[in-house]
Amino acid sequence: MPRRRSRSPAFFLLLTSACATPAEIPPWFETFQRLPVHSVTVDGTRIAYLDVGSGPPVILVHGFGGSMWHWEYQQAALAPHFRVITPDLPGSGFSDKPDIAYTPDEMVAFVCGLMDALAIPKASFVGNSMGAGIAIGMAVACPQRVDRLVLIDGLPQGVREKVTGPLVKLAVETSAPVWLIEFGNWIAGSWVTEDALAEIVHDHTRLTPSVIERSVRNRHRPGLIPAAMATARSLPLWEDGFARRIGEIGQPTLVVWGEEDRVFPPVVGRELQASIRGASFAMIPGAGHMPQWEQPETVNRLLISFLKP
User: Fold this and answer.
1) Number of domains forming the structure of the chain
2) If we measure between CA atoms, which residue out of 233, 237, 257 comes closest to residue 245?
């Protein structure tokens, strides 16, 4: 697939840029299957989420600049075994984008608030990339609320030193002002999304025009730029906080890694596994930074086997 390359941090953050007119939460999540989208208010912020299946609750947490579509291949596969909750985090997707700092502590507090609102006292967590960092935060800050933990190409300690993806590295290090990124959004097109997704996804044949268009549509929503920038700039708080506490994790943990991850190479995943007492590790061939999306059948089998009581 032909690709235009950009190495601007501003352009990478355009993946989370805004459209001119705010959109309401749609009633349905449109993918290869049609799922109802629910919403609940947590601390004054409206959170959109999917809720399918029954059984032990499992919460799927997407990464930086992502949304619930990152887990589209997990819904039908996991629903016969678990109650699967898939939120758009505050500042992402269909959820509200409040004017807050988007610190790791705030994100963990929102997840706890979501569990309270849905009357879920305890759940297993599956997090991808930054979502794995939030899952780690839950495991160490609220251990009584976390049953099992799956970290997929997760956030390690020392992110800036370990990240190898050029666009992601620029995104977490950018100091560009919001107005500049918003201006860039006005002049940019879908090629920006394609270039960034190509860094995250190993098999570029999966980046069909419909996938790219959906990513553009889902991510170009009002308020996403300030939220994305605030999230990136709170990275030092991750390093000084939850990252230093990874060794405290006591829940059964599975670390899953894409063998072709260009954002964090597999050695980072092995280091993460070694830092968690008793953690197991699974390498996923033919997958980049989102193996649950690129190799869903393999990952789903691992999740079902590991998460079942």
Assistant:
1) 1
2) 237
Q: Is residue 199 part of a domain?
A: no
Q: What is the pLDDT of residues 171-191, one digit of tens each?
A: 777 766 655 665 555 555 567
Q: 298 in helix, strand or coil?
A: helix
In this prediction, what percent of the chain has a pLDDT beyond 90? 70
**Other residues' Cβ atoms within 10 Å of the Cβ of residue 20:** 7
Domain coverage including residue 294: 24-165+235-307
Side-chain-side CA neighbours of 251 within 13 Å: the count stands at 28
One-letter-per-residue 3-state SS of 131-183: HHHHHHHHHHHCHHHEEEEEEECCCCCCHHHHCCCHHHHHHHHCCCCHHHHHH
Q: Which of 158, 140, 146 is nearest to 248 (CA)?
A: 140
Tell me if 230 is assigned to some domain.
Answer: no
What lies within 8 Å, CB to CB, of 9 at 6+ separation is 167, 170, 171, 173, 174, 176
pTM above 0.85, yes or no: yes
Write phi, then psi, for 117 (nearest 5 degrees): -65, -30
State which H helix or E strand residue 207 sits in.
none
Structural domain contains residue 107: yes
> What's the angle, vertex CA 123, arms to CA 265 and CA 306, rounded to 5?
55
Instruction: Supply 131's token pair.
Output: 């979502």
Any idea what the CATH number is for the domain that residue 69 is in? 3.40.50.1820
How far apart are alpha carbons 254 and 276 in whole angstroms? Answer: 10
Please name which of 90, 105, 151, 104 lies closest in space to residue 276, comparing C-alpha atoms.
Answer: 151
CA–CA separation, 54 and 63 (whole Å): 25
Q: Does residue 228 form part of some domain?
A: no
